[in-house]
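for the recovery benchmark. tokens below, seq after
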């Protein structure tokens, strides 16, 4: 077997409207809705959104709000990302720092989404 990519992950939110604001309006992802299933698409991946634990089955065994720790890649220089986040009132928790990504060294900053998930925004230099 050879795994080649990540297609999607599932985020469970306690506040759908704030979640949409963060991922669509702040981060610029496309909101999709099909058959009452919501997702944010970016690049060739998506984040499926559950509006309550185990909204759709099968689901993870221990669904919890704020338990994600994800890294998103950007082509935008991080000082510009930092400024855009500030315009939306999003506090940067840590950054800009050097980290090791799947393809090597990258620059990262960290924020929290409305459910307190840790969102790392990174750029390979």
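predicted aa per position
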């Amino acid at each position: 077997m050879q795994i080649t990519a990540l297609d999607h992950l599932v985020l469970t939110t306690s506040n759908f409207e704030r979640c949409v604001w963060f991922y669509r309006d702040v981060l610029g992802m496309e909101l999709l809705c099909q058959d009452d299933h919501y997702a944010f698409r970016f690049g060739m991946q998506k984040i499926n959104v559950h509006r309550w634990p185990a909204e759709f089955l099968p689901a993870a065994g221990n669904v919890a709000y704020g338990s994600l720790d994800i890294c998103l890649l950007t082509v935008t220089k991080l000082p510009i990302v930092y400024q855009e986040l500030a315009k939306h009132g999003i506090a940067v928790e840590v950054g800009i720092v050097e980290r090791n990504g799947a393809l090597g060294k990258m620059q990262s900053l960290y924020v929290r989404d409305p459910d307190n998930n840790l969102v790392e925004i990174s750029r390979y230099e």
